[in-house]
Amino acid sequence: xxxxxxHRRPKTQRFTRxxxxxxxGGAALALPLMGAAGAHAATPQSAPEKAVQSAPxxxxxAAERANGPRTYTVKAGDYLxxxxxxxxxxGGWKKLYADNRDAVGSDPSLIHPGLKLSIGKQAAxxxxxxxxxxxxxxxxxxxxxxxAxxxxAxESxxxxxxxxxDGATVGTPYRMSGxxxxxxxxxxxxxxxxxxxxxxxxxxxxxxxxxxGGAYGNEVIIKLADGRYAQYAHLSxxxxxAGQSVTAGQQVGLVGATGNVTGPHLHFEIxxxxxxxxxxxxxxxxxxxxxxxx
Length: 294
Fold this sequence. Notes:
Shape: elongated
Largest sheet: 8 strands, antiparallel
Order of helices and strands: HEHHHEHHHHEEEEEEEEEEEH
Number of strands: 13
Radius of gyration: 38 Å
CATH architecture of the largest domain: Distorted Sandwich
CATH class of the largest domain: Mainly Beta
CATH superfamily of the largest domain: Glucose Permease (Domain IIA)
Distance between the termini: 134 Å
Number of helices: 9
Structural class: alpha+beta
């Protein structure tokens, strides 16, 4: 019995002490370690997952809002206002047009699929370096064609005015609305005719410009005797040069498909100034001078 008691007592004490040690030191050490391990395990499982999910979205937004230079290729159905909005262009379509005027030309409504636009201030200067090459290419044309310009063409009516091209079919009318034009409408009237068809001064006047007009291709602008301006666009050849006087019916160029077009035709405008945006109804103008149109 005493031996058994001695055997049991130390065992009980050791067991109790073991429990006490486990209850005091063991648990105190084990719980923080478990907690720390749990927190440490949660961090790499959840935090990296969030980072992986949010990083692409953040990068995309940063790229869309970036002011750095980049290039945008025009797609079908695009127009400058839509592109400016989608690309977050500060200043809207007017800023986008100003940065790409050399590429687009004098009419911001004439853009076409495949045209490269620069987005961002630094990129805006890129097209300007190469754009002057287009006017240089067309500059010799007026002088080369001057002999043809000297010949007055078809007769004008009693008021001294005539159609800009004979036998042409009227295509897109004036003020036709559509998203393809940044202005929201067609600023002139199109006369559809084969390439090489003679184009005539609708009235007597002075050529104020003749050369490359960006999206308009080869163009001629004449200040008429009554103070209005007649614009001829997409010409295949120029027959006059700036500063030259012309008479009604005189050849000013040939029908073509230069610039942003889908086929040969004459884009004809009547303006109150030589600049884009001052257009008036060209058909009404011609009819007011006794010219029958289509």
